[in-house]
Amino acid sequence: MRAACAALSGVIAGFCALAVAELAAAAVRPEAGPVTAVGGAVIDRTPPALKDFAVRNFGTNDKLVLELGILVILALFAVAVGLLALRHRLAGAAAVLVFGAVGATAAIGRPEGRVPDALPSVVGALVGAGVLYLLAGRLVPARPSGSRAAGGFDRRGFVVAAGVAAVASAGAGLLGRRLTSAVQAGAEASRRDLKLPVPGSPAPAVPAGADLDVRGVSPFVTPAEDFYRVDTALVVPRVDAGAWRLRIHGKGVTRPVTLTFQDLLRREVVERDITLTCVSNEVGGPYVGNARWLGVRLAALLREAGVRPPSEGGPADQLVARSVDGMTIGTPVEDVMDGRDALLAFGMNGEPLPFEHGFPVRMVVPGLYGYVSACKWVKDIELTTFDAYDAYWVKRTWSRRAPVKTQARIDTPRPFASPKAGTVPVAGVAWAQHRGITRVEVRVDGGPWHPARLGAPAGRDVWRQWVWEWPATPGSHTLEVRATDGTGATQTARRAGTVPDGATGWHSVVVDVS
Q: What's the order of all strands across the beta sheet hosting 328-332?
């Protein structure tokens, strides 16, 4: 009985520590909470292969899985500490303080970390240690001369103390969440009240026939709620557009500038359809989407700051974009300034950017994988060189330069589907941003290649739908697809993983025709 109560004491103390830390984080910033800080530190130190495994198997739920894993570990640790406190009260309390120190160190050690970020973990650990010390004291056996039964402990006193601690910590946690919501209310209001300007350079109308309207194929425009999200932010930043600032500085910048959100809105606004792809996208994977983006030309801002690309003698060949969550993204300056529609975007599919996709401002650079181009919640752009600085992902063995590779995907029929014999539409999407798609071919069971019918071209930065009418016969069959880009190059059959610069190979599905 005492051992069970001791384990419960540890869990309650841990709950108190996390709840108080949440309350303290509301006064500092949500990202300073111990679970978020430790989770971020784990992400920073996770090998690329393991990160890839998490994205591949858990998708956009990878962060939820990580947080749940941390909470499970904390619960087990709390049980162990509670049992330790049963024998050594001070040692148990000290163990809680040590774990608090781990959270504080993780918070300060994050790329965007600062000294005040340690406060939630420290305060939470002090409270948790105190609660554990007090609850453990209630488990001390009574002496024979005491009012309790010999060898027993104050069960009623323990239940009362544990109940009070649990209720108080629940209140602290709820208050912390309310305060955090209040702090974020300004950011949410700035997005809600934003009226997007009419673009001075609107996107061309989507040509008739771009969307083939084949059942099961990804829509030409990906809704924001369905657009893939792959980043390292355990807590989605909520940035008030009115307080947002962007600084442009560094090597070759003769006129450093700091821009407000209103400064961007006063510039020529550009609207473009651009397909984005994540480097973690396996062959046939889901981490690709097409949207209509609204923003301003990044190249024009750089030229006004005095930046020249390397082809014009500029000293900087890398643009390092920094996010409010500490992420750094390194982009080739030449690619940003070569005439492509590289944007500082604030609109997506006719609405302000969702917070999950970078509100108030993010980068969008067609033709490059997101980890070298698509900085969300951007706040700082520094001009430098690839020799002088390695951005976040490059430090973790990914390539410095990563143009999107030509890929085609079969959306229908799905793997292991059982279509009926006869004409079966085999269809999907293909992409080769900034080169465009000119041909897609399908083959069955290693036989001859058959040209697919393509959707009308909507630009070289946009994916194309395709369909081939297959005269399916009964039995098990393997379907394969390959695409050819605007340079005349056909995608390679060689299978390679996503690390270090994107997956290659032909997508295939096996179906059983009845």
A: 257-260, 245-250, 378-384, 318-323, 328-332
Of residues 445, 415, 411, the one with CA closest to residue 431: 411
- 164-177 core/surface letters (b: 16 or more CB in 10 A; e: else): ebbeebeebbeebe
Give Cβ neighbours of residue 105 (< 8 Å, ≥ 6 apart).
118
Predicted confidence pLDDT, tens digits, the chain (514 residues): 789 999 999 999 999 999 999 899 988 988 888 888 888 888 787 777 776 777 667 766 777 787 788 888 888 999 999 999 998 999 999 999 998 999 999 999 887 788 999 999 999 999 999 999 999 988 877 555 444 444 567 788 888 988 999 899 889 888 988 888 887 899 999 999 999 999 999 999 999 999 999 999 999 999 999 999 988 888 899 999 999 999 999 999 999 999 999 999 999 999 999 999 999 999 999 999 999 999 999 999 999 999 999 999 999 999 999 999 989 999 999 999 999 999 999 999 999 999 999 999 999 999 999 999 999 999 999 999 999 999 999 998 999 999 999 999 999 999 999 999 999 999 999 999 999 999 999 999 999 999 999 999 999 999 999 999 999 999 999 999 999 999 999 999 999 999 999 999 999 999 999 9
Report the DSSP beta bridge partners of residue 478: 510
The percent of the chain in helix, strand and coil, each rounded to the nearest 5, is 40, 25, 40
- Evaluate whether 29 touches 179 at the Cβ level (below 8 Å): no
User: Contacts from 202-209 at CB under 8 Å and sequence distance 24+?
Assistant: 202/271, 203/271, 203/272, 203/273, 203/292, 204/273, 204/458, 204/459, 206/273, 206/458, 207/456, 207/457, 207/458, 208/456, 209/455, 209/456
CA 323 – CA 262 distance, rounded (Å): 19
Strands (E) in 278-403, as ranges, are: 288-297, 318-323, 328-332, 343-348, 351-352, 362-364, 378-384
Neighbouring-strand partners of residue 137: none
CA dihedral 410, 414, 418, 423 (to 10 degrees): -30
What are the φ and ψ backbone dihedral angles of 500, each rounded to 5 degrees? -105, -5
Cis (ω within 30 of 0) for the bond into 413?
A: yes
